[in-house]
Each structure stands twice: as structure tokens, then as C-alpha cells.
Amino acid sequence: MPVVAIIGGGFTGAVTAVHLGRAPTGPARIVVIEPRETLGQGLAYSTADPSHRINVPAARMTLDCARKSGLQDWLDAQGIPLSPGIRLPTGEAFVQRRLVADYVGDALAPLLASGRVRHLRASAVAAERAGGRFRVRCDDGCALAADLLVIATSHPPPGIPAVFADLARSPHLIPDSSDAARVAEVARTAPNVLVVGTGLTSADVIASLDCQGHAGRITALSRRGLRSRGHAFGHAESAADFAAAPSRTALGLLRRIRQAVRRDAQAGLPWQAALDNVRRDGPAIWAALPLAERARLLRWLRVWWDVHRFRIAPQVEAVLDRLIVEGRLTLAPGRLLSARQAEAGIEVTWRGRDLRPRSEVFNAVILTTGPAHGGILAGSPVLSSLAEAGLIRADPLHLGLDVAQGCHAVGKDGTIQPDLLVAGPLARGHVGELMGIPEVTAHAQQVADRLAQLLGAREPVSGTA
Questions:
Q1: Distance, CA of 458 to chain centre
Q2: Less Cβ around it within 10 Å: N or C end of the chain?
Q3: Cα distance between residue 267 and residue 286, in whole Å
Q4: Which InterPro entries match (predicted)?
């Protein structure tokens, strides 16, 4: 039987396997290579911390585009009791993130039981073409031959800002905020904490520290000191349409969004209404922008998009608001200047908006600056091996991997790879908006559909990107 190997069994890889497993492709083996015990968890949904919640209502999350409220429907069907505070008075439920993994796992269970999908519990460390097929080597010593290969790996690990490079081994520096044990230790032992970054990951860390009894001070520092915005519920939809005659420049897009927000405000709608439509029309917006304008958008507007697009769960927002009122949380804009080891921790110096340097010793520094997408190839052994073989390359904007036709990898020489596909956020340089669950689900289904076509017809793909 033909073999489809999916490298990465987080949400993207698992959902790709679900849809391919359900497709009428004829005999085929689907193997998901994932080191975690359970498929569907990945980095985002493996956390067991109850303070880590999805940042959109369950009714807007799904693994099947045909069922827009898939997660909420599953919660209701399973009769899973929701703890107090999860459901808002308006009805929206912001559940713990671990439940998303349970939801995906439940969809995969019959496919795993039947053998249609196999979970190879290992990490892929190298891949190459051999004899017209792929040969994937894993860290447990096994090797897998595959006819079709899908890259569905997670985001790369966070990068360490240059000022902290010499302190990478310091016991006071937590470079990866997903290290729950070290974050818990900080909650117990560090009265003065610096969190570098003020986005959603930063909010999760602060909520986790508070949940575990941290009673000291927390400073959250980022270039602009912007925190993720909140949700608005119960409003009508905006009439704004950004897909019709889409803007060809980043500045034109910004002006168009501002005009839409002003028009909506006159009609009594919150800014969230127009921004929801920007997200909806994301693929058309991105496709219309030339490469130089995409780069300009990322440089000047991305930080503003991120804080308005990636909104904070109301329960987590309430924690941050309370800590600010109590004087225990400070959001500070500033540029990092230096960091050095001190007797009680790490002395960090930064320059604020007043351009005056400020220094303070923190008992712990937690980095939440996000994945180092610019180093995606160097940071992953299996991706590095594929790049060395000329089968993949980074996209021009360094958002992930270069893809064409929606999901096919582009090789070093610009050739579209007919049997190598990329699923999920690593394809966002081509697709545009590809970070939220609705977009990731749609892209995973697209990849699964393409795989089903290739399995059914062994249809070749040729050309250059």
C-alpha cells in the first residue's frame, strides 16, 4: 500500500490525518510521526495548566469546516462538566486548552483503532528521497519509507534575545515558557519577575503565575508595551468587505480598515466587527499584496494586527486587570539594552519611551517573545536535512516554508515538489492568515484533499514557483 507520512502530530498533523483517514482513497497507510503520547496535543494543547484557555469561544473552534461549532458540539455531546467561570453570562465558553486535544483525540480514535492511521511515537530527525520514495529516520533508530510526505511540525522554539545570549544557562532565565515545572518554581521562589513579551503567551504565563500563588511583582516588557485586546460579544456583523477590490499596498489597507472601523462605530459596532472581517478576508488581502508590500505590512503593522487579532480570553484578561489594579503587574514599553548575572538574579537594562535607561534586578526572567520563525530550518534537524537535500526552502518573508499551489513545498531551485506538502502555520508566507484554528483547520483539510487526489490518481505536479 502507498504510505503517507505526516511529520508532526499536533493539531495540524492530527486534523490532516483525520480528514485523509476519512477520505475514500482506497488502501493506504497513514503514519503520524509524533513524540508525544497522544496525537492532537502539540505545544498549544498539551498544557495541563487550568489557567491556560482557548482565546476564542468553543463555538468558533472546529476540526471540520462543515461544522463551525465543532468543539462546542463535542463538549455538549460528551456531557463534559465545565468548571465555574468558564462560561460567560452571554453564553460563550472559553475552556481549558487541554480539552481541544481531547476533542481531536476522540475524532482520531476510530481511525487509530482500525489501523487506518498509525501513531509512530518518535521524533523525525532526517528525511531524504531514496529510490523514488522518502526515507524518514527517527530518533529511536527506526526508519520509515513513504510515498507522500507532509510537514506538519510545530512552530520553532523561541529565540533568545541577543542581550540574554550569555545567560542561556542561568538558573534565573527561563527561555521556554512552556516549561511548566520551571514556571511553577518561579511562582514559589521569585518575588520579582520580568516577563519579556506582552502578547498571548505572556498573558498565559502571568495567569499561570497568579494561579500558582505568586504574590510578588511582575513586569511585562515589550518594544511597545502593547497587550492583547479583549473580545466583544452580542454585536451585529460588519458590512466591511476587504476582499472586493483588495488593497494593493499596506498603507491603503490600513486606511481602509480605519475607515471601516469609523463607519462601524457610527452604527454602534465595536472595532472587533471590522477586524473580524479582515481576518475572514485574509487570503484575498494577502494574495493582492506584492511581496514588498507584504514585507512592509509585517514590519510596520504586524504588531498592531497581532494585539487586535489574537484576543485574550476574558478570564485571563480579568487576571491581568486585577494584577494591574493591585499594583503587582506593570506593562512597560522599552528596548532591551543589556543583561548580566547578579547575585539575586539577572540585572536587566532597558530604554523606555522617555529614552532614559533603567536597570532592575529580577529574580527570574521568562521569555515569551514567540517562535523564532527566521531560524526554522536551522532549528529543526528534519527540516535542515530536507533543506540540505534541496527539497525545501524558507519563504522570502521568513514566516515559515516556501509553498506553492496552496500546500506543495518549493525546493531550493524553485521546483514545486509533487510529493512533499506543508500543512498549517509554516505555510503562512504563501497563504497569509494561517494561525487561528479556523484557518489551520481549512488548510489541513486542503492538504488532506490534495493527498487524497494524489493517492487516487497518482497525479503528477510539475512546474516552478
A1: 32
A2: N
A3: 28
A4: FAD/NAD-bd_sf, HpyO/CreE_NAD-binding, L-asp_N-monooxygenase_NS-form
Grid cell 519577575 is found at: 193
Supply 292's cell numbers: 514588498
Are residue 219 and residue 351 in the same domain, yes or no? yes
- Assess if residue 462 is contained within a domain: no
Determine contact, residues 177/31, Cβ cutoff 8 Å: no
CB contact at 8 A, 364 and 348: no
Cβ pair 44, 92 in contact under 8 A: no
Asked if the structure places residue 299 within a domain, the reply is: yes
**How many structural domains does the chain have?**
3
Take residue 141 and report the three cell numbers written for it: 533508530
In this predicted model, what pLDDT tens digit does every residue of 206-259 receive, in sequence order?
A: 999 999 999 999 999 999 999 999 999 989 999 999 999 999 999 999 999 999
pTM exceeding the 0.70 threshold for the entire prediction: yes
Measured N-to-C along each axis, helices 291-300 and 250-266 cross at an angle, to the nearest 10 degrees, of 60
- The domain in which residue 259 lies consists of 250-309
> Do 40 and 88 have their domain in common?
yes
C-alpha cell at 110: 476510530
Report the amino acid identity of residue 200. L
Same-domain pairing of 50 and 151: yes
Helix axes of 70-78 and 98-114: crossing angle, nearest 10 degrees:
80
Residue 463 — very low, low, confident or very high, per pLDDT cuts 50/70/90? low
- For the sheet containing 143-146, what is the strand order? 124-130, 133-138, 143-146
